[in-house]
């Protein structure tokens, strides 16, 4: 093999192993010449060979970059996660005790919050919203009207509908029911479509708040095989629908927690069509929809719904402020039932938080705030993945987040995430053990990491420490 061919092969191998990913800039001709101690001509010939094979591409005055889609490590199963293949068995749900104890430890002030389910609150414009709330609270005109009956404050509902319109999603404001966060929205929607003993189809792994809702209702969960970059497997879901009675399907099509994928539009359309044929309602948890890394806002399952079977749930807790707990549901043909259940369960949603957020949306720079947050999350996702790739042992695989602020990490088979959780906690570090994201132990060697918090030497050292603990547990 000639020298330039060997160099080209070495770079191609790095791409295949995920060291260089789609869109990454590879070292310049001069840098490679110096580091490999070869001539510039040799490097240029190697790069031309890689370019001819479609591995890299040149960009004028910018350098050479790995072509998107040319060597996707996740698709090749090298550095990325593999699709889950859970057994199609429904089971009672009992993960709440584990989650509660884990969240209590994560909430300690001293611990480094790699396991936190919450975004860094320092990124939110809390003081601005608080000033609106204070001003509203001093207005004597609203004294004695501190709560808002369903469906919620009209101005907030208008602002929510406008936001969807700005993002290219047409909604009817009359369908919106304001709730106390997305958690209440999910619980109300599940209560509207099912009853105790019913079976609900979920992704695998799935966000534990959705398992909590199923547990609270006395229902059973059936986990469906899920692709780490495209979402729930439609073939597996269809087989389940043919064999079992399913009350509802609960999914997170955009930046799913913990996998972080964005379901392709054609698959969203196909999922809605499949469940429409079987007349099975879909509860869509879209709380991360504003936190995308791409150029355009993602579509929602709601966009493809022609029969009113999609019950869309979202909130401001992950994008604007978690302190005020304002969410909403757009429940399709179940809208009246959800509004009634809202009234029966919690009666009202406090007015002042609704009014304060509505004023912020109308008068302040929500989009500017979101652009700053998205940029930061995108950068810190890459930093976190780089540290994991560098300091975690062989056999570690990571998700490829398209948005949101969590990274899903598959560890070597010998590692138990609960033991790792305890060892990390002893060192003042929290992680999210994989046990929380399933009704079984199939994710015992997985962890979830939060990358929303401000990058610091302490945070970086914590990641390195977890990597060392993983290496020790893998022996």
From TrEMBL:
Keywords: Aminotransferase, DNA-binding, Pyridoxal phosphate, Transcription, Transcription regulation, Transferase. In the C-terminal section; belongs to the class-I pyridoxal-phosphate-dependent aminotransferase family. It holds the Pfam family GntR. InterPro entries: Aminotransferase_I/II_large (IPR004839), HTH_trans_reg/aminotransferase (IPR051446), PyrdxlP-dep_Trfase (IPR015424), PyrdxlP-dep_Trfase_major (IPR015421), PyrdxlP-dep_Trfase_small (IPR015422), Tscrpt_reg_HTH_GntR (IPR000524), WH-like_DNA-bd_sf (IPR036388), WH_DNA-bd_sf (IPR036390). Residues 1-69 form the HTH gntR-type domain. One of its GO terms (molecular function) is transaminase activity. This is PLP-dependent aminotransferase family protein. It comes from Trinickia symbiotica. Signal peptide: none annotated.
